């Protein structure tokens, strides 16, 4: 069987972000599930605020092309999304918008979001575990970009107490959710390979 390539994107730039920790744990679980994992940090791909006029006049910035090519080289994508005011972060939305503006070699619109599967996770200090962020992100990806987004997701509430000293999840429910999401992502990405 083909080894699926999975891209892991933490939706935060903060060094001690709960979602950076969740992305690292997802990467570990994906590797254990026999996936070829690439984890990135969006700090390495700075982008200006999306502006359609700028995209039309000058074209998307170089980092948008790099992110689109990275996404296109993987059969699956896991996004660990923080929650700001019951929605996704400007960083995550801006990244999605710029990638959607990239067209290469006669690509159809939204090419980077087609023919791959997306899985979502989120950690939040609140009781919802970033559920609102994941709902908004799901809408942007599935409705706005036409992407295949798994129904399964992992939510980590009370994130300040959710990780032990080894960055493992202490909540059995969240740990099990992560394993289910990872397995479904790998299985679906393998079918798309």
**Global shape:** globular
Distance between the termini: 10 Å
Largest sheet strand order: 2-1-3-4-5
Series of secondary-structure elements, N-terminal to C-terminal: EHEHHEHEHEH
How much of the residues is beta strand, in percent?
A: 15-25%
Protein architecture, described:
The chain has 193 residues and is an alpha/beta fold. It has helices at 18-32, 52-58, 62-72, 90-101, 131-144, 172-192, and strands spanning 5-10, 36-39, 76-80, 117-123, 148-156. A five-stranded parallel β-sheet has the order 2-1-3-4-5, with helices on both faces.
How would you sum up this structure in a few lines?
This protein is of the alpha/beta class and 193 residues long.
Keywords:
five-stranded parallel β-sheet; 6 helices; alpha/beta; 16% strand; 193 residues; globular
Helix and strand layout, with pairings?
Blueprint: E1 5-10, H1 18-32, E2 36-39, H2 52-58, H3 62-72, E3 76-80, H4 90-101, E4 117-123, H5 131-144, E5 148-156, H6 172-192
Helix pairs in contact: 3-4
